[in-house]
Each structure stands twice: as structure tokens, then as C-alpha cells.
Amino acid sequence: MTTEAARDKRRRQRRSILGKAGIYFVLSFFALLMVFPFVYMAASALKTPADTFRYPPKVLPRQAATVEVNGEERPLFLLPIDGIDTEVVLIEEGLEAGVFTDPVSPEEELAWPLSLALPTGELVTVDGESLEVYAVTVGDRSSELALKRNTVVGRFESTAGDETYAVVRTAPAAESVSAEWQNFSEVLQRPAMERALSNTILVTVLVVLGVLFTSIMGGYAFARINFPFRNAIFVTYLGSIMIPFIVVLVPLFQLMVAFDWIDHLGVLVWPFLFNAYGTFLMRQFFVGIPGELDESAVIDGATRWTILWRIYVPLSWPAIATLGTFSFLYAWNSFVWPLVAINTANTESYVLTIALRQLGGQAVESPNLIFAGIVIAVVVPISIFIAAQRYFVENVATSGIK
């Protein structure tokens, strides 16, 4: 290989590496951008009410640090001592002090006790105002500063015995990262919330199992059983997907009233046991399974019921997992229908979405509890999705194989 060819190869390699690095950077940036709201939500669920109203906001939950002094818990403050921010505790307050400024740099101010400042008898003009000059002792140094106004300060002391002074009202509090895990238990202890969680789990499990059963049965019938008007019935059934749910909301409500199912958990289950999309998904998957398997099973004496559950279902786990996950997310996050079908006074039949709506009105002053409720509602679907993710990948990978 010539020198020119070797240089050209290295250039191509560098371009390839830079191109891949750029792609990874862009993908990572947008991934973090998408994940950040969820991270902030989860962190806010562990904050105190005051911490959630902090400005500017901080991602991690924090609370004021304290120290025990003479058997009493006292807050810690973060003040500079010899140019280093140090954790200090308030020892004494109400000391007469003054706000001093350097005539050369008037934007810098220092609140310091008058007992540590001696008047020099001189005057200096700062911003067009004539001010007295004091010899102010800070530590081992003494500086000539101008007195702008009088104030009151507190005396602070570090664990090493170093002292400093500052206005107590504006002194920054020392903070530590601390999670308020009791927020979750407090949310679950609220009226109707714990019952709503158990109701949601029950309704979701029943809907998922019902949808899987009816979709598998219907998908197999449309895929493998020849009966009159099969294709016409399938197309008509499939066309129901195009009808928005809001269109059938009132007729469905009237039908449930006729059955006397309103205001019971059954009204959240029975209308959703049949799913046209699920039937379509299973039918398309079953069509892709070779028909020779049916013929071989029939020769061996298997019935259609045995063929379905012993052959087709084990081969269809990717489609079943996909349908189960979609059905789970729909049932778990359902809001409009429970809001219509369940009376707001009937807290015994609440589901999680309705309970969270009620919590949003009750805990306006405690947004950390609202975030905790949202985390409780979100963590289960996310866990289900992560657990079933490999089936999605398998479904996509096998969809192109003939």
C-alpha cells in the first residue's frame, strides 16, 4: 500500500469515527432531553412542599441541614469564613450592626457589628452621598469602610470555633440532598387512593385477560376457519376501529344504564373485552403460520381447540405480548370512560386516574404529593413495557421472515 493510499484510508477512518461520534452525541442529547421531565418528576416526588416551590428550581430533593447544640436541633447556614463557604450555626442574634461598603468598590457590601468598627472621623463621598468612614476589623485584618446604613446581625460559629456575622433573614441555609420517601405512603393513605390502586390493578388484569382471550379466538377463526361471509364480517369489524370512542360514548352509557352496570367496576371491564385491533393483530400473525402445521396436527388427531392452544399460541408470544402491553396501557390509563361511568361520590369504585384528578385538587399546596401519585401511576406501566420490550424486538425481527 502506497503512502498516499494509507493516508486516504486514515482520513476515511477518522471521518467514520467522527460521523459515528456525532450521531451518538445527537441521539444522546435528545434522549436526555426526553428523559429529563420524568427524572424531574421522580425527584420532585421526594421533595418537601417548600422545596418544590424553590426558585430557581433544583432537580435533586434538598432540605435544610441541622446540627444538635446543647440538646437542641438548630439549622445550619452557609457563610464565607476567610473566603471559604463554611457551615455555621447561629449562636446569638439581635446585634447592632452596620452595612459597610468599600469606597473603591461600592457594589460590595458587608454587614458587620458596630462593636468591631471604630469611627475614624473622616467622610467619603459614595454615589453622591457623604458617608462616615469606619475602621472595620474582620478577623486579623482592619479595613477602612464607609457606613451606608444601620442594621441588625447575628453571630454565627463553625464547628472549628471560627466566628462570622451576617443578617439572619438573608443568610443562606446549608442544605443536604435528602429524599422524603414518606410522600408515597402519605399519598396511599389519602381517602380512596389505596382502593383506587387496587381497583385499577383488578380492572386492568381483567381487561387484558379478556382482550387476549377474545382476540386469540377471533383471530384464529378469521385466519383458519372458513365460514360464510368471513371476509365481509372481518372488514366490517375492522372498520369499527375508525369510529372515535367519543362518538359511541353516549350510546354506550345508555346501554350500561339499561344493564344497570353504571357506578360498578364491571362497567369498566365488560365493554372493553372485545378489541378489533387485537383481533386484527392476532389474525395477521396466525395467517403467517404455515398451514402444514394444521394438517399435521389433524392427522395426529388434534382438534381445533388443541391446535390453537398447543401450536398457534406458543408460536405467537411476540404478538400476544404486544397486544397485552397495549391493552394494559389503555386500561391502566383510561380516564374519560371512568369519569363518565363512575359517580364521583362513589370512592369505593374509583380508579387511579380519577383518584389522581381528585388529588390534584386537594393537594394544591403540596405538589410533591401530586408528583408522588403520578410516580405511583407511571412506574407500573413503565415496568411492564420494559419487561415486554424484548418481545417487541422479536416481533419486529420476525415480521419480515417468510
Give the strand tally. Answer: 10
Mean pLDDT: 88
How many DSSP helices? 14
List low-pLDDT spans: none
At the third CATH level, what is the topology name of the largest domain?
A: MetI-like fold
What is the CATH homology-level superfamily of the largest domain? MetI-like
> What is the CATH architecture assignment of the largest domain?
Orthogonal Bundle
> What's the story with the biggest beta sheet?
8 strands, antiparallel
End-to-end separation in angstroms reads: 45 Å
Helices and strands: which structural class?
alpha+beta
Helix content: 40-55%
CATH class bucket of the largest domain: Mainly Alpha
SSE topology string: HHEEEEEEEEEEHHHHHHHHHHHH
Beta-strand percentage? 15-25%
Shape: elongated
| Count of individual domains | 3
Task: Provide structural commentary.
The protein has 402 residues and is α+β, with helices and mostly antiparallel strands. The protein has 3 domains: 42 residues; 115 residues, no CATH class; 215 residues, Orthogonal Bundle (MetI-like fold), CATH 1.10.3720.10. It is 51% helix and 21% strand. The protein has 14 helices and 10 strands. Strands 2, 3, 4, 5, 6, 7, 8 and 9 form an 8-stranded antiparallel β-sheet that branches. A two-stranded antiparallel sheet has the order 1-10. α4 crosses α7 and α4 packs antiparallel against α12. The longest helix is centred in the first third of the chain and has 42 residues. The two termini are 45 Å apart. The mean pLDDT is 88.
